[in-house]
Amino acid sequence: MIVQAVNKGVKQATNTRPYLSRKEIAQYFGVGESTITHWASLGMPVAIVDGRKLYGKRSITQWLESKEQQKSL
Asked: Domain of life, per the record (predicted)?
């Protein structure tokens, strides 16, 4: 019950904030933190504020969409 309440609180918090930590952005996109690190090495946008890396939901979504490929028939 407590775990569910904490998870709900985290989900609500990540839905309202435009920039998230690596752990939060990984949860938001449903991937592991190592995937976020890998994506950043491939050029995914990362904001650095006072030495802290922050990840923008909108900019990462746009970056991912730019990586989509059309299937050939």
From this structure: Bacteria
Helix boundaries (H) for the chain: 2-16, 22-29, 33-41, 57-67
18-66 to CATH, choices 1.10.10.10, 2.60.40.10, 1.10.510.10, 3.40.800.20: 1.10.10.10
φ, ψ (nearest 5 deg) of residue 54: -125, 145
- Do the beta carbons of residue 23 and residue 33 sit within 8 Å? yes
The DSSP bridge partners found for residue 53 are 48
pLDDT digits (tens, 9 = 90+) for 11-49: 655 568 999 999 999 999 999 999 999 999 999 999 999
